[in-house]
Amino acid sequence: MTLLLICLALLLAGAAACALPLRSGVIGPYAATGAAVLASVAGFTTLITGAMQTVTLPVHLPFDTLRLGLDPLSALFVLLIGVIGALAAVYGRGYLAGQDRRKTALSWCWYNLLVAAMLLVVLARTGFIFLVAWEVMSLASFFLVVHDHEKSGVLRAGWIYLIATHLGTAFLLVMFLLLGRDGSLDFAHLAAAGVSASLVFALALVGFGTKAGFVPLHVWLPEAHPVAPSHVSALMSGVMIKIGLYGLLRVLTFLGPPPAGWGWTLVSIGAVTGLTGVLFALAQHDLKRLLAYSSVENVGIIALALGMGLLGIAAGDPVVSTLGICAALLHVVNHALFKSLLFFGAGAVIHATGTDRMDRLGGLLRLMPRTGTAFLVGAAAISALPPLNGFISEFLVYAAAFKAVSAGTHPWSGLVAVAGLALIGGLAAACFAKAFGIVFLGAPRSAAAVQAHEASLSMNGVMVLLAVLCVMTGLGGLWMVRWVAPAASQLLPPDMTTDALQTLFDMLGRIGYAALALIACAAGLYGLRTALLRRREVRQDETWGCGYVAPTARMQYSASSFVQPIGVMFAALLRTRHYLHAPHGLFPTGARLHTDTPDVFVQSLFAPALRVLVRLAAAFRDLQQGRTHQCILYIVATLLLLLIWHLG
Amino acid sequence: MQAVREILVIVLILLNFRLLGTSRLGACVQTVALQAVVIGLLPLLGPRLPAPWVIAMVAAATLVKAVVLPALVRRALRETGVVRELEPLMGYTLSILTGTGLLVLCYLAGRQLQLPQGGAGQLLIPATLFTMLTGLFLIVARRKAITQVLGFLVLENGIYLFGVAFAVHEPWLVQTGVLLDVFAAVFVMGITIYQINREFDHIDTDRLSTQGLKR
Amino acid sequence: MRYALLHILFALAFAPLLAGVINRVKAFFGGRRGPSLLQLYYDLFKLLRKGAVYSRTTSWVFRAGPCIALAAVLLALVLTPLGTTPALLAFPGDLLLVVYALGLMRFVTVLAALDTGSAFEGMGASREVQFSALAEVALLVGLLAVAARVEAFSLSVLARQAWSGGMAWPSDAILLLVAAALLVVLLAENARLPFDDPNTHLELTMIHEVMILDHGGVDLAMIEYASALKLWVMGAILVSLALPLPTAQPMLNLVAGLGAIMVLALLIGVIESVMARLRLVRVPQLLVTAGILSFLAVMVAMR
């Protein structure tokens, strides 16, 4: 715990140093890295030992004292913040190198603040400090998002994010007011039961769901993540949206045994979110936008797992509940690893080519071999393919669903989970086959892609490290569950875990061996192939064009064409817009097709709603003339009214 | 016997899906006839054999629905020479998925209804409701007048099965009434379709309604 | 254990025979003599002796793809039972590993196809990912139905229960439905008619064949062998769940299973002979229908 306090101090000092108009800004990334490494050490030791600690700082705050605590649930997220925070800082130093120094220093100030605020959110043990830290987190990430504010569209995306996150916070405020009705916001005293518990759950779902990206509250994600610098996108997508899930989990610990309805709600939200996320990810042709939608998909999977867990608790089924909750937590960890890896890879591509439009890229694997290989590992992991870590967590969700169906406790939810997850998995594989295949394989589609260069050593190092972590957590799923289990047990009824965990360990142990055998077998076969080809002729030639002898890079399948059949299949949801400039005449020139898939929820839910809001707001325009006198008049009038009300 | 009944019920559900998924009018007619056979067999496979006159009734009804009515519809098809594609208002895959949703709905409704089942198996009621809904769906979501006749027949099949399932003792009461209705309906429709076709050269209801506006 | 090893040896040895059987049946229906039953063996040996030609656009992904694909399908084979003969490695949840190992195989094949930069191979890859996403749903939901009935989570246990009167055939429609769904999935996943025509000579209409246009020599041999094994794996799963031939003799069971797989190959040959390839836009519909069959099976199992 003291270690974490040192971290917080270090981060704040780093932020302050960066904010000063001196050259001291250069220490920003170092402070962030150092503090984050310390934090991950603290988180990891707590996960191992399972110790619970709290400290009360001698600071007087309104409502409550400043109380911080560290238990396994917090520690898991502290570990995530630490690991990804440190790696993103190392990567970001390379990524931002060469940009304006003043701007960079400010960016690092916000970065330090963001990491500190996230730590504080998961350590907070009173509602007040939680909300303050939550707000600092939102603001710091907003300023990080608008780092490149002079570019078009960045500020707009930033505003969307700021408004969305504050709407979410409004719900959280009401939620804490409901929870702390006996006057204290200390987590130890928060509780709710019956109808008010369900109300609190609903508020938490909206409030935290906005941050996490539940459909239809996800609309800020695909706007904000693409415009932010890539290390920030990685931190936001890998960790910050998970803080929303942390909030949901933490609130669940206050609420007592969940009714089955909460589980159904989460399962349905998860299935809808996952499916919507992956379909829109498929339809995107900007790499970072695609990754942002894929984050929505993965949050959906986590919600699905959590829902299965809650259903298990409600039905008193130890296996389903343990599997579900462990799967949710494990997927939080795994997604943090591979999604930040993928964002780092996307950042390296943007750094090298200046664009993230997939139809301008191609063939980058041969120019950026390390980035490409790491990205491939991330892509395979997020597609839940063995022997990587994504498979482990999705396996646990499947296991929970299979158990729920065969035990007959919640067959429909299990069926939804299995069918949903299978479809999501297949589409995610399609999505990342596209992302990797179009960007890194084939021939370069533009001059920018031809001149790409490998990223700097520090950026590459971070990516390779994350790729190795993805493989290792895939092989060692057993240990991962062991570390996650104490955090999961905080959400489970006390008597439910041991036996269920043992079956879990058995399965994951076998999977670990199988995965190891798979890798060994593939390596062996590759060796065999090399040995067979050693003394034979190995030639290089053109790709077989089925008789056509002058192919160009532009004839390759593009991002749009690759997903066209799936797009047609789900046209009712996606509503992809086609801009076709068809060839005509005897000597056609310059045919063009461009597809664009805007978010259907923005188009047909939020935009109309906001138009109505604007029309309503227009009615109040007469009250606001922009004169100072008038404003003061209003203030005075309000004060007078309040005085009268108070006296009367 | 119970097992065969259950399999027949599942076949009935699958036939409904075939109706939703097929693009051919001929296949639709054939499916409706098959459905009538399945539904005719179901009451005969109960725990005990029904009385001879009931068997005769069922055989007659099945004969009408599986042979006579499809033959009439086929004749109408031939006479009017309609194109054999269905021209759906809703795509086939989407129709099938909608059908799945309807089936789940029927399953849940069947559990809520708490009807006396008479050892008919758990899926019988959902299957009955599903057959009715499929008939209605065909009427709503397909463009041709002839599919509306077929939808009507499917709806009748569902109602008949409902009668068999719950009025086990007096199914013929329900049945004869419905059958007469449908028989009349098919006749009227056949004649109407023939007339419409002679007037307008096609039997596309969508175009019929906009005809006046366009010209 | 001994029989499990025997099954794997049989699979490794006889998987290429399935293609021979299918082609013979098709030749019979076509009134031809057809290629030798051992044709695929000859092809494999010929390919293994060859050198290699690589496209200039390809990278290491193209070279590693066939190896990973073969390794993945070998893993699936180790986890697959044949009738009452359990798999070499069986544990609760192995069915998911089988499905996802086959998914890995598909993923690397698709990537290798995209690596060539050829429009034709991109086309095949695009279709492959679309159809397999739907097929995977039908497969997993179908397995869910059987798992729900048997209350187990391991393919070997499912297979044993399915055979040993844990479900009294044919009172249980679940197996019928799941078998039908699995047959559709098997045809789709193994690039057979009515989904994909393995004999077509027009690249525009192919799916699997067009993805491997640029592979040659050892790589092609690995891919062909992996495809044969994949057909064997999915066939073994189908046979294990759908065939009511339990005896007390493990050896007899194994032989019966092998016979059933060969009969399945005959059946595939017949299907290929009497059916035409579906229009591509109709393929998703058939796969969705397979999903519906699985879904119905779960509904029946849920009572």
Structural class of chain C: mainly alpha
Distance between the termini of chain A: 51 Å
Strand content of chain A: under 5%
Radius of gyration of chain A: 26 Å
> Total number of helical segments of chain A?
24
**Mean pLDDT over the residues of chain A:** 88
Quaternary state, please?
heterotrimer
The largest pleated sheet of chain C is described as: none
Overall SS class of chain A:
mainly alpha
Q: Globular, elongated, flat, extended or rod-shaped: what is the shape of chain A?
A: globular
Order of helices and strands of chain A: HHEEHHHHHHHHHHHHHHHHHHEHHEEHH
Poorly predicted runs of chain C:
none
State the total count of DSSP E strands of chain C.
1
Tell me the β content of chain C: under 5%
Main β-sheet, spatial strand arrangement of chain A = 1-2
Rg of Cα set of chain C: 19 Å
The level of helicity of chain A is over 70%
Give the overall shape of chain C: globular
**Total beta strands of chain A:** 5
Describe this structure in words.
The complex is a heterotrimer of chains A (648), B (215) and C (303). Chain A is mostly helical and 648 residues long. Helix content of chain A is 72%, strand content 4%. Chain A has a domain at 603-647. Chain A has helices at residues 2-19, 27-49, 72-96, 101-123, 127-145, 154-179, 194-212, 221-227, 230-254, 260-283, 287-315, 318-353, 364-367, 369-382, 389-406, 411-440, 447-450, 457-475, 477-489, 498-533, 559-569, 571-574, 600-618, 628-647; strands at 53-60, 65-70, 538-541, 577-581, 592-596. A two-stranded antiparallel ribbon of chain A has the order 1-2. In chain A, strands 4-5 form a two-stranded antiparallel ribbon. In chain A, helix 2 (27-49) packs parallel to helix 4 and helix 4 packs antiparallel against helix 5. Chain A starts with a helix and ends with a helix. The N and C termini of chain B lie far apart (60 Å). In chain B, 42% of the residues are buried. Chain C is mainly α and 303 residues long. Chain C has one domain (2-301). Chain C contains 11 helices and 1 strand; from the N terminus they run ααβααααααααα. Chain C has helices spanning 2-30, 39-48, 60-78, 94-115, 119-150, 155-163, 173-189, 208-211, 217-242, 250-274, 283-301, and one strand at 52-55. Chain C is globular. Strand 3 of chain A pairs parallel with strand 1 (52-55) of chain C, so a sheet runs across the interface.
